[in-house]
Amino acid sequence: MKPSTLLTLTATAASTTAFTLPFKFRRDTVSTDDSSNNPNRRLVHSPPTYAGNAHIKAVTGSKPQSLRAGAYLPYNAPASTPEHPNANQDSINSVTGTVVIPTIYMPEFGPTAGNSVGEYSASIWVGIDGASAEAGNSTGSANANCNPLGQSLRAGVDIFWDGTLGGQQTPFVWAQWYPAEHAQGFLDFKVSPGDELRFTVNTGPHGNSGGGVLVENYGPPQSPKGVDGKVKIPIATGSLIWKDMPGLCGAQASWIIEDFPLQERPELPSALGNFTDVRFAEMGVATWLETNLTDEKVAKELKMLEIYDAGQGGTLAKCKTEGEGEKVGVVCERVVEA
């Protein structure tokens, strides 16, 4: 695995409203005026509340409810040594990944299929923590018993299919320090299905209160040397920087597809769209002690997640590793399996 290109951040970085970076830096807290590039609705990037909706919970004897597919790498800090006395406090401080924005369709099978005037969605993100309650033995956070499912720094893209608009595809790119704030969008960041996005997520030592993300859109996938042998250059970039935020566990690198609720219905997961296969590639991981984890280690130690929602038909997305060496990746497929 080639070392990731990382943002250089510290806990004393400038605020999110004033920071000098060599690329456009803007964000919004509400919809932009460009309706062609924003969905009519937004997702709540937090679990459903399920208030008054017990019928969508997993039925007796079925698998536990899970609205998160993809893969994560739990990081177990090595034991400290005289040469490296802080090794046992090591934690993940950078995660990268690329993904091609899939095409989303109305499902043809399962209880949610065939709603031609409905809205379907899915969310794809890369981040630090947020995948599972498994914490490994990393003690990098202030709380040695830190639950990595309770907080995360992540960047992603939401995809929507809107039947009232003839099946319009409206990807929306966002970043979030969860749960301290709502997901933030990027002003003037143009994306379309089929574009290749690269996400870089970074935090300071021990998951401290400084962090940031960089999102790059390279347009339709190119060769490593770009079009006509030229170096690949992003057609759009966006970044966010945070300071004075709750610390992270730094115990997981996460590449996730998630079924979040719509803002209008936070108690229910959105009807998951039928999407073309999602492939996470260029999966880079680094720790604050400057350890770059290798492709071989990532491939061997990745743990897979699948979406299971009895109310939507059972298992809805399954993932597996694919390829080897520098081309190793995780491929997630949309399914309906009772």
Automatic annotation (TrEMBL):
Any idea which residues are catalytic in this one? E258
Q: Give the region (Disordered) as residue ranges.
A: 29-49
GO MF terms, alphabetically ordered: glutamic-type endopeptidase activity
The highest taxon in the source lineage is Eukaryota
InterPro entries reported for this sequence: ConA-like_dom_sf (IPR013320), Peptidase_G1 (IPR000250), Peptidase_G1_sf (IPR038656)
The family database entries (Pfam families) matched by this protein are listed as:
Peptidase_A4
One Gene Ontology term from the biological process aspect of the record: proteolysis
**Which Gene3D superfamilies does the annotation name?**
Peptidase G1 (2.60.120.700)
Put simply, this protein is called Concanavalin A-like lectin/glucanase domain-containing protein
Which organism is this protein's natural source? Pseudoneurospora amorphoporcata
